[in-house]
């Protein structure tokens, strides 16, 4: 069991000892730190924070603790109840709120929960702001309000529908074209809030929906990370139902994966590629993803005469670079679509609506054939566990020097771009681990590159 404190929030397992897990005491402590920082940061007399949660079993408990802590600081709350990460991100600016908190551990199993923290734009906090909150939490420098100045709670359970309306109003989303196409889609909502909002969006677009694990009871029927090995049931059901494709989201609905009509994975990396292909065909421009994402996005961007840039890993880093480069779409290779036309956050609803419109407008009958039409890349993801005595930074510098004649980036670890493949080496912030991501034009080449690099790392480390 563990408690992870980072600039983006606090994440941990429920129960156990204070400071080692996400206990009620820890939830109150970090909610207090966020509220205290918000008061210092804004300088306003009265603040408002939007709060929503996914369907985790621990959600109501953590929700009540966090909400009432902020009330105790004199902060007003707009309580969305059961919601999604992108829904809260959309709600913050619409409500002219000063911040937001999403209570979700994203793709982690059911024993986990977390506080994801947003600024007044509905975007994740900067590294500097997150670090300040951790300092406040460590010092426990809290000053709560007296009885006459407590915050008030306003419940607004309409925001899933408002979010859907915002998506349907996007210029590149055409619900009428989708309705005429007559799609049939299977949805795996992993028994969280995606099981409510994705079918509701699809029905408003005239799509026939087959629901799988769409009861938001928090009992995840499989590992909630949308990877191939966890998605056997929907892959089989898509074929059995003769559906056009399948949709899988994680518990907080910011990651999106598609299943082709043949029951095979479309590929999380290619969710962003397909959506970008459609968006760039209508509105040419630039794109951004992180350094561990597929080169296929670069290829598609250049096909549409745009410019592609890669950021350090992490949504806040992707968003920062998107703003700098005026990117019109971006995201992460884990199925996260960021479409600034609506907001700067990963949003599965935006991805689903753009993808469906793309299929409908281009009369695409086979999702598998669409996938086959894109540049073919294959990834290998590995890690090396080292002893605490080994200097991981020195190893990365050694690898950087070894490949000095190649295209090397040290923005985030060491990324080495070869002519037809790449490798990205990153160290863990919490363990003596080096993560190794490789991509090549066949799985065998990606695996072989990873094996070669692992061997070279061990040679540099002297192990």
UniProtKB/TrEMBL annotation:
One of its GO terms (cellular component) is cytosol. Residues 8-142, 164-263, 270-377 form the Alpha-D-phosphohexomutase alpha/beta/alpha domain. GO terms for biological process: carbohydrate metabolic process; peptidoglycan biosynthetic process; UDP-N-acetylglucosamine biosynthetic process. Residues 399-455 form the Alpha-D-phosphohexomutase C-terminal domain. One of its GO terms (molecular function) is magnesium ion binding. It comes from the Bacteria. Keywords: Isomerase, Magnesium, Metal-binding, Phosphoprotein. Its cofactor is Mg(2+). PANTHER family: PHOSPHOGLUCOMUTASE (ALPHA-D-GLUCOSE-1,6-BISPHOSPHATE-DEPENDENT), PHOSPHOHEXOSE MUTASE. Belongs to the phosphohexose mutase family. This is Phosphoglucosamine mutase. It comes from Flavobacterium arcticum.
């Amino acid at each position: 069991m563990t408690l992870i404190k980072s600039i983006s929030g606090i994440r941990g397992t429920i129960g156990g000892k204070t400071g080692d897990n996400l206990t009620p005491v820890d939830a109150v402590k970090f909610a207090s730190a966020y509220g205290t920082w918000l008061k210092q940061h804004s300088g306003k007399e009265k603040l408002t924070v939007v709060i929503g949660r996914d369907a985790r079993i621990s959600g109501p408990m953590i929700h009540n603790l966090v909400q009432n802590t902020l009330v105790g600081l004199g902060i007003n709350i707009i309580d969305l109840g059961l919601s999604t990460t992108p829904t809260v991100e959309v709600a913050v600016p619409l409500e002219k709120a000063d911040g937001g908190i999403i209570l979700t551990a994203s793709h982690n199993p059911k024993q986990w929960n977390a506080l994801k923290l947003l600024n007044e734009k509905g975007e994740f906090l900067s590294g500097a702001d997150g670090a300040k909150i951790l300092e406040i939490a460590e010092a426990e420098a809290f000053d709560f309000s007296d009885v006459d100045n407590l915050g008030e709670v306003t419940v607004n359970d309409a925001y899933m529908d408002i979010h859907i309306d915002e998506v349907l109003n996007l210029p590149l989303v055409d619900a009428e074209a989708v309705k005429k196409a007559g799609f049939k889609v299977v949805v795996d909502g992993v028994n969280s809030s995606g099981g409510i909002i994705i079918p509701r969006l699809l029905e408003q677009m005239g799509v026939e929906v087959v629901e799988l694990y769409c009861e938001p009871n928090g009992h995840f029927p499989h590992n909630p990370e949308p990877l191939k090995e966890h998605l056997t049931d929907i892959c089989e059901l898509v074929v059995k139902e003769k559906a056009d494709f399948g949709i899988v989201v994680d518990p907080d609905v910011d990651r999106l994966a598609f299943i082709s009509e043949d029951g095979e994975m479309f590929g999380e990396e290619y969710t962003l590629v397909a959506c970008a292909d459609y968006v760039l065909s209508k509105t040419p421009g630039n794109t951004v993803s992180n350094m561990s994402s597929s080169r296929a996005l670069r290829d598609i961007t250049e096909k549409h005469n745009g410019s592609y840039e890669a950021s350090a890993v992490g949504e806040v880093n992707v968003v920062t670079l998107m703003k700098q480069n005026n990117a019109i779409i971006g995201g992460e290779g884990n199925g996260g679509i960021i479409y600034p036309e609506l907001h700067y956050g990963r949003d599965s609803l935006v991805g689903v609506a753009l993808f469906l419109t793309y299929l409908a407008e281009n009369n695409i009958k086979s999702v598998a054939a669409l996938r086959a039409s894109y540049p073919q890349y294959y990834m290998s993801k590995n890690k090396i566990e080292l002893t605490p005595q080994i200097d991981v930074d020195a190893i990365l510098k050694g690898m950087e020097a070894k490949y000095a004649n190649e295209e090397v980036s040290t923005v985030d670890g060491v990324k080495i771009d070869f002519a037809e493949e790449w490798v990205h080496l990153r160290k863990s912030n919490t363990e003596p681990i080096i993560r190794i991501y490789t991509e090549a034009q066949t799985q065998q080449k990606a695996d072989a590159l990873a094996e070669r690099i692992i061997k070279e790392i061990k040679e540099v480390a002297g192990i």
